[in-house]
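Troubleshooting entry. The earlier prediction with acetyl coenzyme *A gave an output that would not parse, so I re-checked the input for stray whitespace and re-submitted. Clean input:
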Amino acid sequence: METKMDEIARIELDGKTIEIPIITGSENEKALDISKLRAQTGYITLDRGFKNTGSCMSAITFLDGEKGILRYRGYPIEQLAEQASFLEVTYLILNGELPTKAELESFESEIDHHTLVHEDMKRFFEAYPAKAHPMGILASMIVSMSTFYPESQDPNRSQEAFQLTIKRLIAKLPTLAAMVYKNAVRHPFMYPKNDLGYIENFMHMCFAMPTEDYTPNPVIAKALNKLLILHADHEQNCSASTVRIVGSSQANLYASISAGISALWGPLHGGANQAVIEMLEMIQEDGGDLDKWIAKAKDKEDPFRLMGFGHRVYKNFDPRATIIKKACDDILDQLGIDDPTLDIAKRLEQVALEDEYFKSRGLYPNVDFYSGIIYRAIGIPTEMFTVMFALGRLPGWIAQWKEMLDNGDPIGRPRQVYTGENARDFVDLDKR
Ligand code: ACO
């Protein structure tokens, strides 16, 4: 993106005026380009948690946290969630444009042809403890794929080889995720059925048994399609930034995505969907006294936080939460499920939204506040919820990784303000 000469900010430092170029994004977002500041002045900028730091220029996802806007490649999330298929959105995020019918068919067919994982990968599952967390297994499985495809480790591989790695990942992640699920419930693995759609195939690998016929329920397939689309990208969040920074050392795509899965696992990020359901169940078992839990969430001495509430960038509402809340109602209705945690979630939302503490801090339900209730309704165990998030986020991670390389971004390496001891002499062991 070009910077114009008249777009210059000036700051006074040590009696000198420093000119800092202003960068303007396509949605008129403004940034100060401080990349030369240290060379010019010796100063760095300090921004713990990168709350106000742009780490890159990106053309994938636009969001406006104040207005509650989220768009992939310019298309509003509301339209994509309602009208598109997950693979269509995957193609869009990766390539920048919606596919034509022929392009989509060809993309779907290529993905279909890579769904099998190497038979030896099944043997890993024999070694994990029965109660291993699915996210730990998934992260290990994905980085292990680099050992089965060693050519992926060559940073100078051809475009063709690179595209093959992308397709393998998109095709095999559902297979591995379903194996993680089957391992957790101690059921036999089911091989993929490539005449099924991407989501229906995942459902088949999770819910079918070798002993009986299985037809994926279209209501559930539609719900999963929507959930995966809502999670497909979210610009420079914790896991996407992790994928970019790992990839910036020219580590291979499998290693970078595995690192993204690990970053997603934490309860302050993707792990919140598991934490929300556990919290709602705890409140229910405790008798459902919402005032008590709201008071705990507001008490700074108490570590309890309202999981599924608050977001680093959305300070008015999370547009994904609005879509998911409606989808949650529809799905439970269509499946004829009466889930008491939905009732608690709605009441909790109501109480929090009227409370001055939450209002003044811009704390609203985020995408994960209702997603767990849907996953539970369609038979996915709580510990698998974040795996579902990873399935949805994969296209975003890959696109962020690819964009970082295509833009020639340098290796990620922040600076620090050192606050430790000044230089001192080593003291011999017997004198300490
Ligand atoms: N419950 C109670 N208080 C909260 C909550 C919450 N869920 N979230 C933020 N606050 C308070 C903080 O204590 C702080 O209060 P203070 O100003 O009095 O000190 C203020 O609101 C601002 O919060 P920060 O933690 O500074 O905001 P930050 O942007 O760093 O964190 C985060 C955002 C991590 C999402 C936070 O809101 C949180 O922990 N939420 C719960 C976990 C969650 O749902 N994570 C999923 C996020 S969505 C996703 O990753 C897909």
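This one parsed fine. The pocket of acetyl coenzyme *A is lined by residues 268-270, 272, 297, 305-312, 361, 363, 366-368 (CB under 6 Å).
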